[in-house]
Amino acid sequence: MPGMTRAATGRPEEEALLGRPRQAAFLTAGVAALTAVVFALVADHGALVRIQRLDDAWLRLMISGRTPPLTAIAKVFNVLGLVYVTLPVRIVLAGFLALRRRWWHLAAFAAAIVLSEVLIGSLKGVYDRTRPPGSLVATSGASFPSGHAIAASVTVVAAVIALVPAGRRRVLWGAVAVAFSIMMGLSRAYLAAHWLSDAAAGILLGTSCALVTALVADQLQRRHNRRQRPARAQHPVGVPPPRRARSG
Questions:
Q1: CA distance 69 to 225
Q2: Cis preceding-peptide flag for 132 (omega within 30 of 0)
Q3: What are the pLDDT digits (tens) for 62-121?
Q4: What's the whole-model pTM score?
């Protein structure tokens, strides 16, 4: 139709990652600040002594409350956090976003995963904290922060942001993602694979990675769209471009 722009007749513009970027920025800043505080406290020797007392008390509580059904559930969570599970899930989610051509959503999801994986190894090396004794599952490497908790939280939170449109549904699914992350963290402490503080730090770090990358991708997407719209509006479909006057 005359006067209709190419943006209107072509593929619809990809919806923004975040419906309310200002509120998202406040949430991201709060979670990131809390994450930084936890990591700073664990890095401080005096604070770590007090944290260790809480960790020891929690471990004793977990050991005293162990039952076969709870142990079986915790071991299921242990399997869910292994790379043999998280990697295929991440690949499937990324493939789905690519097939739907949701490139900005894919970028936010992939960036969150990559950032978290880089931080897991480097932070474990920096803190080099010893794991609790008597783990019920096989473990390797340093204890802080919990790799399972990071992997679980960053995957589910980033997936909710990338797959669920902004609004009430995203809030509901986000609550489910956070609940799953907490369950993963508690299962690590229950199995004595990690201290409670390891799990808490992992949940916060994974969530921070998902929120920060989504916020950055959203801002880049909005800037990109603002640059594209004026250029598209200059070429309305159905109206031929003006002919140049012939010389001579």
A1: 52
A2: no
A3: 999 999 999 999 999 999 999 999 999 999 999 999 999 999 999 999 999 999 999 999
A4: 0.86
